[in-house]
Amino acid sequence: MRVTMIGAGYVGLVSGVCFADFGHDVTCVDKDERKIALLREGKMPIYEPGLDELVAQNVREGRLSFTTDASDAIRNADAVFIAVGTPSRRGDGHADLSYVFAAAEEIADLMQGYTVVVTKSTVPVGTGDEVEKRILARRPDADFAVVSNPEFLREGAAINDFKRPDRVVVGGAEDPRARKVVEELYRPLYLNETPIVFTERRTSELIKYAANAFLAMKITFINEMADLCEKVGADVQQVARGIGLDNRIGAKFLNAGPGYGGSCFPKDTIALVRTAQEYGAPVRLIETTVAINDDRKAAMADRIIAAVGGDVKGKTIAMLGLAFKPNTDDMRDAPALDIVPALQKAGAKIRAFDPESMEEAAHLLKGVEFATGPYDCVKGADAVAILTEWDQFRALDLKRMKELLKTPVVVDLRNVYKPGEMRERGFTYVSIGRPGT
Ligand code: UDX
What we know:
The chain folds into two domains: 2-199, Rossmann fold (3-Layer(aba) Sandwich), CATH 3.40.50; 238-430, NAD(P)-binding Rossmann-like Domain (Rossmann fold, 3-Layer(aba) Sandwich), CATH 3.40.50.720. 46% of the residues lie in helices and 14% in strands. It contains 19 helices and 14 strands. Strand 4 (79-82), helix 5 (98-110) and strand 5 (115-119) form a beta-alpha-beta unit. The N and C termini lie far apart (56 Å). The structure holds uridine-5'-diphosphate-xylopyranose. Uridine-5'-diphosphate-xylopyranose (UDX) is lined by residues 151-155, 212, 215, 219, 253-255, 257, 260-265, 324-325. Uridine-5'-diphosphate-xylopyranose is lined by residues 151-155, 212, 215, 219, 253-255, 257, 260-265, 324-325.
């Protein structure tokens, strides 16, 4: 199959290279010249484990190319994927669809022969209908289908999530020609019996939002349980294990922490809330989830302040981890973006280290001193807070860290360490939802 991917961001780039790896001829198109130039040199614009090797291999084998000019790529394609951003619109939280519609119009102007237009970007219910309408308005003669195929990949595990998904969701492929194209695209997944959910287009669009909202709610649920655990002297990790072994609940996404962040959950939950309000069927559980998660980030800053005795004025707080989760350099809606300014406002000096996200963080956080490594970061600090559970923070030399800290206070917002052990080592240790912390 000849595949064109419009948008070489996280979703577009990972999906593009994985489709190439499935054996298809893929062209990734992006308007950003710098990004395309980087990709052509074999350099990745994002940090994602394994991506550079997979790109290099597929480029070498002639199945993957990058361009800023969509014309040929769209003309020759069997399937054109729209994988552009759908950021939150300033002011009202609705998904901004201007990039999606611009891509649809470009496709309309260029496509030749039967073309399947696939929306991979996360788009609100009804967007596929609008894409179809806009294409028809420009090209009433066009022979095409608009299919919804949301992507569920997680940053940091994106390649594996694409190649070994729990399921693939396809909406609006009623035309047998469209269905054949989709089946061909995902042939390797058919062969390993991945469930492929063929459904109506609007249903498919909603599945994506429902999945993300449910997961955000699940995290928020365990975060509230953690707060309760702290009050009643219970252990949230045991609660998570105890409920997670029930197959109806499931063990995943029950790690209590500083609140969810990232490029999807915050934006998609708000967009779902707005859509639901618009249709007069408010999703109050998700409205509450959003509010609780926002409050939680502020509460995390208070927790750090309390750990150093209630006043951070003039104190140095070391931050280990800034990205919203490990194995990514992505800072979008990272809890650090709320926690760091709140601490600064209370008078703290912040010194931070993150293995991948410091360059990005430097644009978003002012007045932060960036360290060269974890030990450099904690040196002389009044407390250290762990914000992201990078593997390298799980294996710190705690003796060395204790010697370097001015006062041995550790606020572990990701429950990386064991409370008993930390206390034995002489730390004042605060974590999330565990007895005595
Ligand atoms: C998410 C969805 O998982 C993915 O299916 C969708 O396509 C995009 O959004 P991603 O944002 O990459 O993926 O990260 P994810 O691993 O889901 O984590 C999101 C946030 O939730 C992070 O801030 C993470 O720290 C937090 N989280 C996750 C928890 O606090 N506890 C958990 O148990 C799991």
